[in-house]
Amino acid sequence: MKLLNKTVALPKLTWRRGLAAVGILLVLAVAGLYLAATAFPSIGANSADSLRAVIGDQAVAQLETWIFQAQDSFRQIKYGLGLEKPAAPWQPPAAAQVPSPSPAPSATPTATPLNTLAPTATPLPQATAEPTARPTATPLPTIPPSPTPTPWRPTAAHALGSLEGEGIWQAYIKDAKGAAVAYRTFIQPDPKRPYAVVAVVAFDLKKARLNYVLGTDEPSIKGGPRGTGLIPTADAQPGVLLATFNGGFKATHGSYGAMSGGTVALPPHKGLAILVIYKDGRVDIGEYGKDITSLDNALAWRQNCSLIIENSQVNPLVHNNSAEFWGANLNGETVTWRSGAGISPDGNTFYYFAGPNMMMPVLAAAMQAVDVKAGLQLDINNYWVHFTAIRNQAGSNKPEGLFPDEMKVDISRYLQKYSRDFFYVALKENN
Hints:
Layout: H1 2-39, H2 41-55, H3 57-80, E1 170-174, E2 180-187, E3 198-204, E4 208-213, E5 241-246, E6 258-260, E7 263-266, E8 273-278, E9 283-287, E10 298-303, E11 307-310, E12 313-314, H4 323-326, E13 336-343, E14 349-358, H5 360-369, E15 374-380, E16 387-393, E17 396-401, E18 422-427
Antiparallel strand pairs: 1-2, 2-3, 3-14, 4-18, 5-16, 5-18, 6-7, 6-10, 8-9, 8-10, 11-12, 11-15, 13-14, 13-15, 16-17
Helix pairs in contact: 1-2, 1-3, 2-3
């Protein structure tokens, strides 16, 4: 009887041990992903992709949510204890120095003392009775001075926080003549998370061309067309290439439409946000099927989620935390790195947004702070959100991260053949 009891108890004990082992593995996986995502972003990002093939997208999404929540909670504790303070992502511009006005000239000229005049050596000639008349000079026509062209600047940004330098546009990328082609600033849009600082880069589309590249692997469907993953040689020349930045989600995370140079990797879907680059260089953002109805003259286009800003107003869907709208697997309330793109009301300024510890309403607030007409979300998570200014250093392209500390891993990823889609900005030919 005792033997029987032991025999019956063994399966129960084994089941409990198996459950405990699964729990331990889950904890180790979370801890491992947390450490990888924090210390080694590229390893963390690639590990998450590998893990999706084993336990599925939803399970990995839940792990990522826990990790991001833990990171955010830890950061809130550090700021609450005063161990860290909010900081600008780069050195903000110094306050403008107003020159002292020069003293106004005296209205009455100062008379020269008579005793300082030199004596006249030769007596002055006497006037004749009939002085010789002088010819009348023909006045030259007055030519108005050429107006000095006003340097381009983005429209004023609205500061939402208390960091010094917030909302002040700083010349960021210049052409060979020294004229600014892009400015940057930062916004502090989340009062609950003062460390959530959003970087904004504004490009002058009269001088710069936006371009889109399909990656060799993403976005694509099985058996579908793939991209080159390369910037064309002509645009990759030092002094021509100005900047590179990330694209949108993978195909498995929404199958959002994508096309470049006539290659349609994924078809467009009505009702979703779309960024369109036209053959004449124009850029527009809107809802496909409503704001943008035809893609006939498009050079490239990319969809990603719903509009964040629509007709200069926040889309009500921003406050819906559904993963379907804002993160494929991560919902809009997940605090993580996010990026986005926007266009000005006149269509002449293109904006790129990026920053850590953001929920969707925070990204929307940053977009409204620079008065975009329409804006959409691009990729999310720390490794995939990536922007570099390209400097011409002795005839070679040198990438420089927008966030110097956080965007230094694989900093040259878009300067060579790349597996995922991305955008780049090049100087227009007439500049």
